[in-house]
Amino acid sequence: MTFNNEMTLYFVLSNGLDLGEMYKCPPNMTTPFYPRPIIGAYFLISGIILTIIYLPCFLVMLFSKCRAPSYQLMTLLAIFDLSALTVNSIITGALGIQGASFCHYPLFIYCAGAIGMGSWMGGCVICILMALDRCVEINPHFPFAFIFYKPVFRFTMLVVCGYWAFATFFTNPVIFNVQYMSWFFDPNIGKDSDLYHNIPHTLNNLFVSVISTPLYIYLCYHLICIFGYSTSMWMYKSKQQIIIQAVILCFFHATGAYIYVYMQFFPTPPWLIIIGQLAWQYSNGCVCLAYWTLNRTIRNSAIRMMLPKKIRKRFKLHMGIEEQIEAERNEGNNVVASTADTIMAHTAKVAPFLMETTM
User: Fold this and answer.
1) Residues 219 and 346 reside in one and the same domain
2) 347 and 237 in one domain?
3) Per the CB 3.0–4.6 Å rule, which of 86, 148, 149, 270 could disulfide with 69?
4) pLDDT tens for each residue of 219-262
5) Strands 175-177 and 182-184
6) pLDDT per residue over 47-88, tens digit each?
7) CA 219 to chain centre
8) 216 and 83 co-located in one domain
9) Which residues contact 54 (CB under 8 A, 6 or more apart)?
10) 108 with 100: CB under 8 angstroms?
């Protein structure tokens, strides 16, 4: 496929929201509605739930004073994830329940597909950078450690944003297909499907699959084999959390990438297409689930942000060492409180968000 500027979102925006000839539905074409209420309801409800539980984590990271590279990557990833969940879950579910296809809402589906495309490709780069950051944490001599030096990292973030902009505005978008409850490049309006192949998307998916998998294997190998003999319970739990997060994130991204490349070029059974759609959904949604289950710092900060102190005290939800000390003092446990004060004195200079394992 040769690059066609008329197939991009940039062309549509610069031409008064007028879709190019490649995306104009024939006037004599009839497209019946094909409702998929059950699977549509699943994507809609699950997408809303994942978005609701992701938002507090995103706000915690956004307003955090920590500016470590890992937190900047996680914040940008949250933006991409929330955008992608809107497309691959909420919009997918709503269109599925109604049974609408491209020709029912061409401009809306076109723009949603462009946003979904940019969010996916931008998120892929972030996940690779997060894997590199983890490798640098366990091995300071890792070959790509220079990426996270402050001047270089600023340029890296600009490159990521530029890559997102390129994927969103200068490549052809994915288009919703209600029959398969998934997104393809071909809008199914009677033209040759080979004209719609998105080569940058294919290269992106192959790259993320080939690069991220060995990175996460390297990470797990070092945590298991190099640090596997640590007798520290804290080290054991931290290592376990990192491995679980790495395996989950790599699995969903690699699965979604492989399946979406395959189904753009080869006949694919409906069940495999649905698995690919679910993999895309949870490549974005699994991140917030990991924050709530494996990252105590973000979880506690989110609860502090959502629940007033009176409610936390009533249900004994002591978020952080300060509230734990206060609760113990109120109960008259001066000995434990004194010990906690000593611990706090030794850790006062440590940024709260650097004291926990981050994703």
Assistant:
1) no
2) no
3) 148
4) 777 767 655 555 455 555 666 666 677 677 777 888 888 888 88
5) antiparallel
6) 999 999 999 999 998 888 777 888 899 899 999 999 999 999
7) 20
8) yes
9) 78, 81, 82, 85, 285, 287, 288
10) no
How many domains, in total, are found in the chain? 2
Decide if 191 contacts 105 (C-beta within 8 A). no
257 and 329 co-located in one domain? no
Low-confidence stretches of the chain (pLDDT beneath 50): 1-2, 231, 334-340, 342-359
Residue with tokens 């691959």: 88
CA gap 155, 159 in Å, rounded: 6
Cα-to-chain-centroid distance, residue 173: 19
Residue 320 in any domain: the answer is no
E-only strand ranges, the chain: 175-177, 182-184
Chain centre distance of CA 68: 19
Tell me if 100 is assigned to some domain: yes
Same domain, 112 and 25: yes
Tell me the residue range of the domain where 336 lies: 325-351
Half-sphere exposure of 174 (CA within 13 A, CB side): 30
Does residue 42 contact residue 282 with C-beta atoms inside 8 Å?
Answer: no
Radius of gyration of the chain (CA): 23
Please report whether residue 319 resides in a domain: no
Domain identity same for 280 and 347: no
* Spatial separation of the C-alpha atoms in residues 287 and 282, rounded to whole Å: 8
